Amino acid sequence: MSNTEINVEKLTAKDFSSGIDVRWCPGCGDYSILAQVQRTLPNIENIEKEKVVWVSGIGCSSRFPYYMGTYGFHGIHGRAPAIATGLKIARPDLTVWVATGDGDLLSIGGNHFIHACRKNIDLKIILFNNQIYGLTKGQYSPTSEKGKVTKTSPYGSVDYPFNATSLALGSNASFVARTIDREPKHMAEMIDRAAAHKGLAFIEVYQNCPIFNDGTFSELTEKDTKEDNVVILEHGKPMVFGKNKEKGIKLEGFHPVIVDLNDPKNSIDDCLVHNEKDDSLIRGFILAHLTDSPDMPTPIGVFRQRIKPTYDEAMVEQIDQVTKKKGKGSLEKLLFTQNTWEVK
Amino acid sequence: MSNTEINVEKLTAKDFSSGIDVRWCPGCGDYSILAQVQRTLPNIENIEKEKVVWVSGIGCSSRFPYYMGTYGFHGIHGRAPAIATGLKIARPDLTVWVATGDGDLLSIGGNHFIHACRKNIDLKIILFNNQIYGLTKGQYSPTSEKGKVTKTSPYGSVDYPFNATSLALGSNASFVARTIDREPKHMAEMIDRAAAHKGLAFIEVYQNCPIFNDGTFSELTEKDTKEDNVVILEHGKPMVFGKNKEKGIKLEGFHPVIVDLNDPKNSIDDCLVHNEKDDSLIRGFILAHLTDSPDMPTPIGVFRQRIKPTYDEAMVEQIDQVTKKKGKGSLEKLLFTQNTWEVK
Amino acid sequence: MSEVREIQEKHIDEVTVRFAGDSGDGMQLTGTQFSDTTAVVGNDLSTLPDYPAEIRAPAGTLYGVSGFQLHFSSSDIHTPGDVPDVLVAMNPAALKKNLSELKRSGLIIVNSDSFDKKNLKLAEYESNPLEDGSLSGFDVMDIPITTLTYAALEDTELSQKEKSRCKNFFALGLMYWLYNRPMEPTIDWIEKKFKNKPQFIDANEKALKAGYNFGDITERFATRYTIEPAKLKPGIYRNISGNEATALGFVVAAEKAGLNLFLGSYPITPASDILQYLSNYKEFGVKTFQAEDEIAGIASAIGAAFGGNLAITTTSGPGLALKTEATGLAVMTELPLVIVNVQRGGPSTGLPTKTEQADLLQSMYGRNGESPVAIVAAATPSDCFNMAIEASRLALTYMSPVILLTDGYLANGSEPWNIPAVDSIPEIPVKFHTEVENYHSYSRDEKLARPWAIPGTKGLEHRIGGLEKANITGDVSYDPDNHFEMVKLREEKIQKMKDSIPDLEVEGDKDAEILVIGWGGTYGAIKEAVIHTRKKGYKVAQAHFKFIHPFPKNTEEVLRKYKHVLLPEINLGQLAKVLKSEFLIPIEQFNVVRGLPFRVGDIENKIIDVLGGSNE
Amino acid sequence: MSEVREIQEKHIDEVTVRFAGDSGDGMQLTGTQFSDTTAVVGNDLSTLPDYPAEIRAPAGTLYGVSGFQLHFSSSDIHTPGDVPDVLVAMNPAALKKNLSELKRSGLIIVNSDSFDKKNLKLAEYESNPLEDGSLSGFDVMDIPITTLTYAALEDTELSQKEKSRCKNFFALGLMYWLYNRPMEPTIDWIEKKFKNKPQFIDANEKALKAGYNFGDITERFATRYTIEPAKLKPGIYRNISGNEATALGFVVAAEKAGLNLFLGSYPITPASDILQYLSNYKEFGVKTFQAEDEIAGIASAIGAAFGGNLAITTTSGPGLALKTEATGLAVMTELPLVIVNVQRGGPSTGLPTKTEQADLLQSMYGRNGESPVAIVAAATPSDCFNMAIEASRLALTYMSPVILLTDGYLANGSEPWNIPAVDSIPEIPVKFHTEVENYHSYSRDEKLARPWAIPGTKGLEHRIGGLEKANITGDVSYDPDNHFEMVKLREEKIQKMKDSIPDLEVEGDKDAEILVIGWGGTYGAIKEAVIHTRKKGYKVAQAHFKFIHPFPKNTEEVLRKYKHVLLPEINLGQLAKVLKSEFLIPIEQFNVVRGLPFRVGDIENKIIDVLGGSNE
Ligand SMILES: Cc1ncc(C[n+]2csc(CCOP(=O)(O)OP(=O)(O)O)c2C)c(N)n1
Ligand SMILES: Cc1ncc(C[n+]2csc(CCOP(=O)(O)OP(=O)(O)O)c2C)c(N)n1
Ligand code: SF4
Ligand code: SF4
Ligand SMILES: [Mg+2]
Ligand SMILES: [Mg+2]
Predict the structure, then answer these.
(1) Contacts B158 to A, Cβ<8 Å
(2) Distance between CA atoms of D589 and D609, rounded to whole angstroms?
(3) Average pLDDT of C195-212?
(4) Interface with C, mutate which of A22, A23, A76, A133 (most C CBs under 10 A)
(5) Which one of A299, B233, C411, D31 has the lowest number of neighbouring Cβ atoms within 10 Å?
């Protein structure tokens, strides 16, 4: 079906808009994600819009497919990865994206998520993490911080939160990244990277919900604080951050610590050099757990990328192999197998 | 309700048997787990048998509660951690154990498992990992190795398996351990340790299913191979293994490698010293992923233990605090709140 | 209020008002405040909030309109009203969306400031309805509410945006003036709500008073209305919504049973409120567990029931669908458990914020195997309180799961509630089994309930689960005859509940030609339709099912008495199916599935229709 | 077979044999081999495997007994037989467990070696039944099968344990001799099965032949039986189980529709076989996805359906319960999807290896909202093939989810199947929508089906989901009238299927006084009961529902024709409920819920009972 010639006309962001009125609240971080996706997809080489499908669950974020000018499936709560898995296996020629929220993916949908990671289904999952249940009007979510006061936790929640990147890595996801709604360029880069990854790609986007959880990420997004609180991961580069890149991260044993690069005792060479292609998951895991300690900056970027055969690929290959060996199936043979007898 | 005097008589293994005929296949590794549990529990200090509850899902392994002389709940497939969670929250005075299989806990039950880990519910979960669906007669499970030929994968499965300890750590479980059905003493120790841990304790037991997956763990259990393939984790001790403890494990960057201790160039001091109390999850994660490479030995023992408040505890505390502040609830006050008016 | 202008004070009997505006305009709040105040002055009332599935759709759009309807009266009323007499529309979209339902010649109060080009376009108006004559026939009050609010707040420190947010209080104040309500309850509320933000207290109060005074000052309103207090049954009242009543019912049930209350739940519209209310009552020892999903919600409740708590789980349609397998486990293990299903529009995600009665068959039959549960349904918002207690009582007395059905209309709607004296609510006797001798986990008492022996009880260690149980001993049993016995026993136990539920009551004409039956949230609409048709001279009676599985003992007798039995349902005829198959009685169905409560008039017409048309 | 001993060769018409032994004794294999061979010699047959939920309970225990019943005949038969004529019991537990069902004076073949103290005790025998006279009245052949097997394998290299495992082949050989069956099919099977283990080929063949020869040599059997081939309809036959037939049906349906087949499933007894069979057919491009749970099973199938595959999901009761929410999504998105539910004993985990018909109401009503799906049910093991195709055809033609109900008895039972010529099976016309002009995702053809426009089709990019859809455009719509319209349309579409399903057929007496109706796997038992009672002179007719939602057009007409309508069901009356509510027709119910197929005799008695007792 693939006919690249059809696509000589360059697609634009507009081609990726369905034209339907967007119904998120004013100021919602979801707008930014939509804009970056619509801007980024047209630049993907050989992209055929009709081969792109957006699948989602339920939540504010899960309205996403309606706004995309591609095929879309607004599923049921938590099941987007499972619907997308079936679609991708049935139709490996399609590019299947999942738009989902922290409740949708990590609460009710947790099982499908970890299994999709494990199986390396070739899906691109974007988690709109606003650390709240938006659509149901403000209950704490599995990523809400402990102690959070919400409608269902009037005295503060007693839940420890999930660390989404940790969970993804614990499930052996082959591509794990994080970005922030207020960093459009970085986000665009992550989307591009995910699109290019063959295998399951997971992007966590920190997304502000101005209505029910306004400002949770403000330390990471406000001009005067963000440089001190965000470290941008770049492959092959030392991990440094701060307004003047004056702070670095090094490891003491398994414990990442901050080094003051203004202090002549320290050198940038002590700093951890980011390597997203590390075969092992350990480095990614260390990065994922930087957020455990309040003193450490939050990493954004690609935590880990590893190329290995995808599930859908392997299934097609197995079918091809068996078919090559046995020949294409014949119904005649299938029905009239051995152990038949004739009544005359 | 707790009245320790009642328990002056020492309980025995027999007290922990229900006396019901055990119905596993001859040679099943489940027998060994049952025996060790029944032998270990009586030794736990102040244990009151009537305060112990075993909860399970569905599978061969999930028959476990029937054989225990304690309270038991044979639930539905995959839901044991959720049932146990409700029970523990409702009744923090009880000791709640979960007996479950690799299909039960990691396939259909995956979501409840990771959430129980995250929330640090004070449950003791024993995973009977036989890398197969036993009760349904031999389909591959989420822990079966890639390529495995089973009833549902006649040409070899295309699934990458879960690493159960990695998933538990990725979900921030506070106690993670592994043992083997054929190592009764080690198993007893792990059970004892789990029982003593306040918080979610997860023990993965490699368990042989002689009927549908015989010998999967034989490299780890057979006399002539096990010393070379198993490394026993001991807190504060260097990680060494081999028939004559002639091999050690050290880290090169994030990559564990084997060092030959017979080679005078190497010293036991180079070896990684196990520290199960490490605050961070990283060390446990490295250990969990030792099994990724076929050359490395499989660790058994406690990967990680960390003490932090449990969910059930925190909930009780919150109730106490609010009650202290507001006084015990009065129905009168609750119903006849402000904004009432009287009709005469 | 010293006023020289001549204002006509008119006494009226009842009014239906609808507030409508953007999702961000605070219409739900305005409606609730008006209701609470109206309740306090002693009117009977009934409310119907109606909001979109979007949290706050872009301002000015049609799909972003949020509404709140309120019917209040000096006599007994039962519904939020079919057609509003008054529409308060904060923008063109609100006007557009609601106009068609307004009473002919009704009053329209609009914020004329919002009728600018942009908003008119968003509302898909070609021309300005305030100017093009299309509203002729209505009594239109176009008031520059935004401008007037800004003016009132001139000397406050608020930003323009913050000031603008106060305009709903202006509208509320105006309505208070128009219907002669006191401002104090709202002022109290504002002071409490913004305790830590004094600037908002000041601003909102100013806006409220400005609205009120505007009514006083402007020459536009020639009439002001008084609605006398309703002659309700003596007692202490409060205004209550169905969800709050449900929550309170369970707290009371737990106390009356001497048990701890456990709720395992996952948020879902329109049921989340119950979880939210209950998470507040820590001082009652209530434990609310916000689970990872609906299955964990019910599974945790089953665990808590095994542990000896009054265990409940709350949800709405799609969530109930997810709980079916575990509900079967509760059936097999015969544990007490209340499952609350606040019905919403289906199938699938359907119409999440709308009401419907289409989960009855799911509740009845939606499980594998022969898997009977008890089913009860609340009839009005305040009745949710009673039915939560009833459901708990049945669950605990018979050791059985019970499904309590309410719906989006009951859940969010409100009415004055005659608060019962705490002592007047009967205890729910619960005794955990402790006797070791002759204990069998599946022995039964005269109600066919098995003993509740909870972990921690010495000597009663036993094991339960989802496999078929041997009668009496509770051992796992694959015996064919035992299975048949148990299948029958489980159904019989539900039927036994007939002994402790009230008979079906018939209201209306003794010699009625038609019996209008119903269940759940349609009670009020049916009741008003019956009253109206009787006033018109038809012979009509009403009976309402609050207990559906089992049916009350006298059900068949009642149904067979009447020439016609009419059953209005907000589904395609679910209770009708159950009744027809059980009694083989013909039933006239009236089914309207529009995501909204019945219109009284429609039921009225149907009654007249069934009786052969107008008798006039 | 050159034999001097005088053996009586007796021609008989039919026999029912039951093999029973430990779960580890290979009784299922023995039964299957005997069935396959019996099929090949041309008898009609019907089988009933019956195994415990435990994989391999400790040897010798009562609960570890596994059985396989087989009824074969020289004429048309329809059930596995009510009471066995012959019991082959490999140990005391097998004898104990099955004796009560054996025909009076029936033949018992036991492995006398296993009647030692330990096994007697495990079987809860106080004394040895072979010695204490308790078997008097039966024809008992106590044969030291273990000893004889060891003897036959003396010169093989096998361990004692391995030798012991061959004893079922000895028993099989003996039975082959007794019923005059050839050994070749089994020898062929052995050779294929143990291709890589020649020592097992040798041993098993030796055991088989030893058993056969033992029959020949021993003086104990005076009679040997011949059952002539049945006069079945001409054609090519094979013996087939319901699960295999289901799997084949879907492969054929996909090919006939020109689509790829996708199965998303999670293993569960007794449905796992279908997944297992389909995972073999890679050369047909069949994709089987073993999902993490049942919800992922159906969700993945919904995704695959959106992608343009023939998508199915397979499960049993508790799994169907888990799929309800997602089934609603398929209803709302109007995607073709077949859900196979192999019913087992419920509620909850229930009796996992036993049969039952108690998921009909769950299939009909077990979803939130008004959420209609089509329901079809297979009548016999081989009919599963037809109904899998029918279900696929309905799903693809009407763009709708379809539930195909089979049950544990059909799934594991087998019968000879007259294999249809591939060309005789009609194509299923499927056309993906490709025209860009005027495309609307919820427009409808004359069947009310919406267009299937799959991703990859340029210009038809559109979005579907679980929220209510606007008629025709498919946009999200919260409009009340649209909702009502869609609720009715969805039900109407199912009713439309009446146009393409066959009328209900009536077999039996034209002037019958009683019509016995049924659905699903009870077909054979009802049919035999009808034949028997007609033979006894009663006027009886039969009609069997294979299409349940919608019912065939002529259903009411047929039902109203008869004085009595009797409906036997293996539940508490589920189809009866549906029929009664739909047609208000009284139906006599006959409900037996024992985890087992109906006994023909019981239905017979019930028919006679309804007709007022014996006519003799
Ligand atoms: C089965 C089911 N359970 C619950 C809900 C209610 N529900 C809808 S969205 C949602 C959570 C939304 O949170 P999140 O996924 O974080 O999305 P957000 O709105 O924050 O983008 C819930 C609980 C539902 N629609 N279906
Ligand atoms: C809802 C549901 N789905 C599927 C099943 C069937 N089932 C029973 S046990 C099982 C898997 C057993 O595997 P595991 O958990 O590894 O336990 P094991 O038997 O190997 O100990 C399955 C799929 C079921 N009982 N219920
Ligand atoms: S509620 Fe929050 S997440 Fe949802 S649309 Fe509004 S701002 Fe965005
Ligand atoms: S099937 Fe395997 S896991 Fe199950 S009881 Fe038998 S040996 Fe044990
Ligand atoms: Mg969220
Ligand atoms: Mg297993």
Answers:
(1) 311, 314-315, 318
(2) 12
(3) 93
(4) A23
(5) B233
> Model-level pTM?
0.96
| Same domain? C179 vs C260 | no
pLDDT tens digits along A228-256: 999 999 999 999 999 999 999 999 888 89
Of B134, B131, B113, nearest to B180 by C-alpha is B131
Query: Is D486 part of any domain?
Result: no
Cα radius of gyration (chain D): 26
Domains of chain A are 13-216 (3.40.50.970)
Cα A59 to ligand 1 centre (Å): 4
C205 and C345 belong to one structural domain: no
In terms of Cα–Cα distance, which of C589, C526, C412 is closest to C79? Answer: C526
Report chain A residues whose CB lies below 8 A from the CB of D304.
86-87, 89-91
C268 part of a folded domain = yes
Are A72 and A28 spatial neighbours (Cβ–Cβ below 8 Å)?
no
CATH of residue D60? 3.40.920.10
Q: Domain total for chain D?
A: 3
Rounded to an integer, what distance in angstroms lies between the CA atom of residue B290 and that of residue B287? 5
Range of the domain at C574: 506-610
A297: contact with B, CB 8 A cutoff: no
- Contact residues, chain D, for A20 at CB < 8 Å: 475
Closest approach of A84 to chain D, Cα-based (Å)? 6
pLDDT for D121-150, tens place per residue?
999 999 999 999 999 999 999 999 999 999
Residue with tokens 């860009």: D436
pLDDT greater than 50 at residue A2: no
Task: Kindly indicate the confidence band of residue C614, based on its pLDDT and cuts at 50, 70 and 90.
Answer: low
Which of C424, C454, C479 is the last residue before a domain boundary? C424
Query: DSSP class of residue B336?
Result: S
> How many Cα atoms sit within 13 Å of C499 on the Cβ side?
10
Q: What tens digit of pLDDT does each residue of D287-319 get?
A: 999 999 999 999 999 999 999 999 999 999 999
- Reported as a single tens digit per residue, the pLDDT across D371-387 is 999 999 999 999 999 99
In this prediction, residue B3 has a pLDDT band, given cuts at 50, 70 and 90, of: very low
Sign of CA dihedral A202, A206, A210, A211: positive
Of B261, B258, B266, nearest to B293 by C-alpha is B258
Q: Are the CB atoms for D374 and D497 separated by under 8 Å?
A: yes
Q: How confident is the model at residue B2 (pLDDT cuts 50, 70, 90)?
A: very low
D599 found inside a domain: yes
User: What's the token pair of residue C258?
Assistant: 């001497």
Distance from CA of C41 to the nearest CA of B (A): 8
The predicted-structure confidence for B52-88, as pLDDT tens digits, reads as follows 999 999 999 999 999 999 999 999 999 999 999 999 9
